[in-house]
Structures are given as structure tokens and as C-alpha cells.
Amino acid sequence: MDDNTFFRRTVLIVDDEPINREILGTIIGGDYEILHAGDGAEAMRMIGDYGMTLSLILLDLFMPVMDGYEVLQKLSEDETLKRIPVIVLTSEKSAEVKSLGLGAVDFIPKPYDMPEIIRARVQRTIQLAEDSALIKSMENDDLTGLYTGRFFFEYANRIEQYDAGRDMDAIAVNISNFHLINDLHGRDTGDEMLRSLADNLMTELGSRMGVVCRENSDNFYLYVQHLDNHTDFIDRIVTRMRRTEGISNLHIRMGVYPNVDHDVPMETRFVRARHACDAIRGDLSQSVAVYDEEMQRNEIFTQRLLQDFEEALSQQQFVVHYQPKYNIAGNKPLLVGAEALVRWNHPEFGMLSPKDFLALLEAYCLISKLDRYVWNDVAQHIGQWKDGGAMAVPVSVNISRIDLLDHGLKNTLLTILQDHGITAQDCVLEITESAYADDAVRIVETVADLRSEGFRVEMDDFGIGYSSLSMLADMPLDAIKLDTQLIRNITKSDKSRQILKLVVGTAKMLSLPLIAEGVEEREQYDMLKSCDCEIIQGFYLARPMPAEEFGKLLQKEE
């Protein structure tokens, strides 16, 4: 055995002849801890006591009380004990086939006159069993018992290899708002939900050719013989799970790349299925999305943007526009600030709006690079406007969730201010409502640290995300911004108007200024003014404008 072995494996020798036990013990005893049993019944008692601490059983077949065949039979009926490797001790060739059928892995012939071969077989058998156990532990997900993603793709490719040309579907399955299930019902309930989904996927797979895995968290993949009706497939699962798990509003979505192109790599097939699944994220009216030509065009588009991103930064293709903020408390709207909004002036696709690339860059962890580009650009413009004698108003810049997890964020921001000769009062940091939900304690600490340096912090997109009004009391904030979706509905929905009044009242009670963005109509303007919402931004008063145009506006307002 390896001299670096940290512990000695234990081997049970089962033989009714004491001399045989002694000979085998002498041959391998220098490398292993040796246990002895004189018959099958004694062996089973010892196996029950030592269980999986046994690395190997050397088993004679012909013994009184209980023979070796009975021992093999009993081991094969126990899901745990059958994993202990067994080498049969026999001098009869005819016994080998029957022993193999009962789970034996090798044979040592009698008499024991070749010690080196015996030691080699014992060492090899133990090593193979341990390697197999290690692979098995990596092959299956501990929680659900399904394949892990790594082995899933291995087996999916085997289906492709041995049954090429069969119509197959690549499917991605995801539980909508799974994090809320954990938050509301506890992690144990969430884990039980994942196990239930895994069991139901296997049930629906049935006798069809295919494999299933838990790719990560609440994301599952299926590579399955083509299904005629994907909606019925997922509806049956949801119906059963709502009944068994007791969650009536459970929603599961499924993305399908049907009748896969066999020339497309396996991993790419599931990128497409996942892309379809993500296309209906947040849409509880749909359960199934099918990858189609439009999605393929979008996929090509997004891959092109990712490919061009670094060059776009170096060539300064990103352009910052400024949307003015106005205080409408008086008779005339007064300019009190602006929000920095980035555009991408792509050489082929033209001017791209934030919705075309921000979520993509965030998903691929590239958003921090763009944020730093924007912060520097904004700081440079603010410095130029101040040096030119223009009216000074604070400009809001976005801080992404990834930025907030960067321990060097504060120093990065302070360095940018210093480089351009401006102060923390010249910039407002906007953090989305959902960012607080990711790691609330750490985010609150980071925000408090930034505010201690003089930065003002606004919660962006308030009113549609994860937070409640009560959480505002614990957040270190200087203002909250009402989401555009809420503003859009206040002239159409009485419920939205009531929510608006509630938020305005709560903000006043907490002495938090309220900012409404996305104001596009006079009716919205009047309603916000009547509710004492003092600061607004939106197309009704001013569209986002290039830096040069906003600089002229500052000079005019001076």
C-alpha cells in the first residue's frame, strides 16, 4: 500500500478453517487491520457491527451455519452493504459464475500459494471500490439523487453516440421565485420542494429514453425523447406538487429546445433551452417557452455584444446621457439634479438603449467594468461643468449588486472624485431595491459606510421588487425612487393610486424624499403633485440628453 496512507483499511476474512484465516491474515496483515469470522452467520453479525468501515470481505463459499452464497445474497439485498466489495475464496471454477451473479467482484483460488498475487488483488479491489464510490458521490446530487450537471452531459452524449438521429428535446425547468419559498416557508420546505420536483420529473420521464439532472439550485435539465405536448407534461407535475407540497400558487416554467439539431454541441442545446426558460421569467401566465428563430437571433445578438464589449470600452462607444430631475413643489419646476443613463453607440447596431445590454452584462459579471467607465465619465463632466461656472446639481449613478460586494468600492469611488476634483455631494448613488434582498446585512453595512463619506444613497425601482414598506425603517437611505411601472399605472388603476398614497405617506413619516421616474403624461404629473411627491423625472419634462446639451441647460438655469 502507499506509504502516505493516513489510515489502515479493515478487511474481514470469513472462512471456517482457522489455518486458512491465519494464512490470509499473515499474507495481507502488514497492510490492513484484519477481522476474522468462522462462518456466514458470524460474518453477518460483524458486518452489521462494522458496516461501511469494512474496505473488503474475503469470503469462503462452503461453510457451516451459513455459507458464502447466503452471505452474498443478504449483502445484495441491502443498498448500503452491497457496496462493500467481496472477493470469493474458492477452489471450484464452477462457483465463479454464481458468485458473480450475487455480487462478488473477484476470486482468490485455493491453496494460497501466491502471496504477491493475493496482495495485488486485494489492493486493486479496494482501490477500484474506493474510486467507484468517489465517482458515485460526484455523479449524483446529494439532495435529489439525480445526476449532477457534469455527469448529465456525459450520459446525454452517450445517448447521442449510441442512438444517433432520434428526435430528442433539450429541456430546462425552473421553479419561479424559489428564493421566496425558502424565505416564507423555510429551507427545509425548499429542499423538500426540490426533491419532489426531481421525483416528479423522473415519474414523467417514465420509460422514455432520456436523462435528468439538477444543474444547480432550482434549475433542472432533461434530455428526453421528443414530447408531443410540453404543456401537459409540466401541468401534471405542477398539479401533483401543489397537492402534495401544499403550495397553491406554485409556478414552474419550462424552456424547450425541441427536436434538437444534432450538429449543435450538447451544452449549446441546453443554453438554448435555458434561454427559452429565462424568456418567461416573471410571467406567471406562461409555463412553457419554445426556443425559436427569434430567440436564436437574440442569442446571436447577445453573443455579439459580449464579444464586442471590451473593444467598446476601449473605443469609448458607451455614451452617457443625463435625464434632469425637477422639484415640482412650487409653481414652476426647478432643476435639482439628473440621472446618468448610459447608451451604447455600437458601430453595427447603432445606438443601443440600456435594456439591450445592462441585464446581459450583469448576468456575465461584466457590469462593474461598465459602471466604473460611467462613474469616471460622469465625474469628468461634473468637474468640467463646475469649472465652467455652471449651476451645480448632483448626478445619480447606478451601483450594481456586484459593485456592492466589492470591498474596494468606497476607495474606488473616492479616488474617482479626487481625480476629477469633485466631492461626494456631487454624486448620488442609486441602488436597486432587489439588491438589498440579496445580502441585506452586508449591503446595509456597505451603504452605511458610503454615507459616512458623504455620499447620498437612493433606493431605485421601489414598489415592484422584494422589499416591503417596513424594511425602509432599517435601510440607510437618503431618498427612494418609485418605479416606472407603478407610475405608469397610477392613472389606470385605483389600486396603484392607493399604493402611491401609502408610499408617499410612509416616506414622509420616515423623512425620506420621494422621486418619481417615468413621468410621461400631464395627468401623472398632476396626480403626483397632488400627492406631495416633490421630485420627478421623465419625458413629460425632459428626455435624457447628451452631456453637452445638459451642460447648456445648467448654464441656462444658473
Structure, described:
This protein has 21 helices and 20 strands. Helices cover 47% and strands 20% of the residues. It is elongated and about 105 Å long. Helix 7 (178-185) crosses helix 8 (187-205), helix 8 packs across helix 9 and helix 13 (367-387) runs parallel beside helix 15 (409-420). With 558 residues, it is of the alpha/beta class.
Please describe the biggest sheet, giving its number of strands, its sense, and whether it closes into a barrel.
8 strands, mixed, barrel
Q: Percent of residues in helical segments?
A: 40-55%
Which CATH architecture of the largest domain would you pick? Alpha-Beta Barrel
How would you classify the helix and strand content by structural class? alpha/beta
Any low-confidence stretches, pLDDT <50, length ≥5? Answer: 1-6
- N-to-C terminal Cα separation, in Å? 85 Å
Could you tell me the mean pLDDT?
88
The count of strands amounts to: 20
Query: What's the number of helices?
Result: 21
* Beta-strand fraction estimate: 15-25%
Note the overall shape: elongated
User: From the alpha-carbon coordinates, what is the Rg to the nearest angstrom?
Assistant: 34 Å
Which descriptors apply to this entry?
558 residues, alpha/beta, Rossmann fold, Alpha-Beta Plaits, TIM Barrel, 8-stranded mixed β-barrel, 5-stranded parallel sheet, 21 helices, 20 strands, 20% strand, elongated, disordered N terminus
Topology of this structure?
Layout (H helix, E strand, L loop, with lengths): L9 E5 L3 H11 L4 E5 L2 H11 L3 E7 L7 H9 L9 E5 L4 H7 L4 E4 L5 H25 L9 H14 L5 E8 L2 H8 L1 H19 L4 E7 L2 E7 L4 H16 L6 E6 L8 H14 L8 E3 L2 H22 L3 E10 L6 E13 L3 E3 L5 H6 L3 H21 L7 E4 L2 H4 L4 H12 L6 E6 H6 L1 H13 L3 E7 L16 E4 L1 H6 L4 H16 L4 E4 L4 H9 L4 E3 L7 E2 H11 L1
Parallel strand pairs: 1-2, 1-3, 3-4, 4-5, 9-10, 12-14, 14-15, 15-16, 16-17, 17-18, 18-19
Antiparallel strand pairs: 6-8, 6-9, 7-8, 11-12, 11-19, 11-20, 12-13
